[in-house]
Description:
This protein is an alpha+beta fold. The chain is 40% helix and 14% strand.
Amino acid sequence: xxxxxxxxxxxxxxxxxxxNHVLRYRPMIAQKPFHIVPDNILLHLYTRFxxxxxxxxxxxxxxxxxxxxxxxxxxxxxxIDYCIEDPxxxxxxxxxxxxxxxxxxxxxxxxxxxxxxxxxxxxKYRGSTATGSMIIIDxxxxxILLVQGFYGNRWSLPGGKINQDESLVDxxxxxxxxxxxxxLANRIxxxxxxxxxxxxxxxxxxxxxxxxxxxRLKPGTKNEIEAITWFGIADLPTHIQDIATxxxxxxxxxxxxxxIPFIRQLRLYIEQRLSGKPPGLALSExxxxxxxxxxxxxxxxxxxxxxxxxxxxxxxxxxxxxxKKNKKSNTSRSPNQSLSxxxxxxxxxxxxxxxxVANNAESKKCGEHSVTRLPRLHP
Length: 379
């Protein structure tokens, strides 16, 4: 196990972590092999992303050291895309790269600055950063496009976190281009979107209709997206206890928890569109109908999804006698038990089973959906 698997958990999507929580992991780090980034790569990243940044950015970093982590994050993205020789093994996470850069080039950190405290501060801010994505609907209004990362089983709408001084529209366009190879900047309507709050973070999904299923799909970045496929809208779950749908997909609720909050209103939106209503009117009507629905209210759905996203599970723990007894007596176990989270980028968990590892030109079944696995891209 690499150090990234030990350090990532405290910072990913969790508020309130202090330096004491970071220090608690140091004994664990000392007992595990540390992934060392070669000196020539560290030098290249330092020169390209830190040493030669514009003077105004250097001034910003001098005034507010937290600003430097945005540049280190850009370096980490470059490192994941072009510097990892074996993507199946992976590399160091954001914290690990920061640590090695600052140790190799100590002049980056001003005297009197505790960079680990600043890193926690930056991570909290980054964790609450809004995301922009797209709900890409096919020409028949029956399917939407979902993506899956290399290092997790989670399906999501193509999209990602907003950059500094970037609009959510530009963010969604950029992320969709990076993850699918589709340039939809001219087709996005800034007012046609669905907002959801998941884990306290705003996730805005812009609706784009009429994309042919025959469109060529290819990620613009390396070692990030493993699979891109069309899913039937009627086949996707509308809440985390939609057991029948999950069984058809041969999946778990947490594999779709970033998609679930959008599906109910999306179905209503498509119904309105197929009845002849224009996009704007269809969106407002779908929102009204969704809020008035008594089947599974939106605010309860959000709370349930947030609870699922914040769960931490020890998969290797041994159940107690009481738990074993309850397991035998309760045959209808809630699907949100014993779940784990995987992510979409190289910083996320790398504990993949061999059946989930992509092979060149490999196809895999997810329920009735044929999922084309993209070949791993090497630098």
